[in-house]
Design brief:
Helix content: over 70%
Order of helices and strands: HHHHHHHHHHH
Low-confidence stretches: none
Shape: globular
Radius of gyration: 17 Å
Strand content: under 5%
């Protein structure tokens, strides 16, 4: 019960930020799981299983508020799905101990990037569609391989390219359900085909349940959360948290703790 409640709080906090900013649920959740000693592939699979529920709730909220740019949505989806499926295959092809340092380093970079973005003004110009394909594929791949990244990569990339925050955040959140679904099916396929040998050691159902319950409860509150705290404040908080957790994991991997 204590583990369930802990991850419910993690899921709630992560989804509140994700729904408001279009990023951070997967990164926060996977970083916490890694800190608790969960192998990278299992952490990513756990987070994406939880995201099937949280992204559906969050996407529905943005659909209700008409925050979705459908032209951008349909441009992002096919490349994000393709990148996500490839990332899941790559992550399950290696031993967790070999992959973990790279995943931890990636999460630290994302956390630092969020901190950097919090100190810079976000432009609002039309997004050039030619950058959507590579951005979607990269975000999908890193999302699966790192246990999170669709939001940080896609949202920051689109905002950096001049996208309007409201529609970028709404579109990225809505599209994330299909990304999570494709990645989850990819992990399932690796289990069925015997490609993922460590899948039999999966033991994190309690944490997944906590992430789901906390995330679903927070999803409808995203709009209110973003009105309560400034966008830059939220970015700094989540960036600091991710960087701190990734730093702790790095020290643990090097034997300094």
């Amino acid at each position: 019960m204590e583990e369930f409640l802990l991850f419910a709080v993690v899921g709630f906090s992560a989804q509140a930020v994700d729904g408001a900013l279009g990023m951070a649920y997967g990164v926060i959740s996977s970083t916490v799981l890694l800190t608790f000693g969960v192998p990278p592939a299992q952490a990513s699979a756990s987070v994406h299983a939880a995201e099937l529920f949280t992204t559906a709730a969050s996407g529905s909220a943005h659909l209700y508020h008409r925050n979705i740019d459908w032209k951008l949505f349909w441009r992002l989806i096919p490349f994000g799905v393709g990148g996500g499926m490839l990332g899941a295959f790559v992550l399950t092809s290696f031993d967790g101990d070999q992959v973990k340092p790279f995943v931890t380093a990636y999460l630290a970079v994302i956390g630092s990037w969020l901190l950097y973005r919090s100190f810079h003004r976000i432009p609002t110009n039309p997004v050039k569609l030619k950058i959507v394909a590579p951005l979607g594929a990269t975000a999908g791949f890193l999302d699966a391989a790192g246990g999170g990244g669709w939001g940080p990569v896609a949202t920051t990339g689109l905002l950096g390219a001049g996208g309007q925050p409201r529609f970028v955040i709404g579109t990225v959140n809505a599209s994330e359900f299909l990304i999570a679904l494709s990645v989850s099916l990819s992990f399932l396929a690796t289990i069925v085909t015997g490609h993922w040998e460590q899948a039999g050691e999966f033991r994190d159902l309690t944490s997944v349940a906590g992430l789901i319950v906390g995330g679903v409860l927070a999803a409808p509150l995203a709009g209110r959360m973003v009105k309560t705290l400034r966008e830059r404040t939220l970015l700094r908080l989540v960036g600091f948290l991710i960087t701190l957790l990734a730093g702790y994991e790095t020290l643990e991997l090097t034997g300094s703790l």
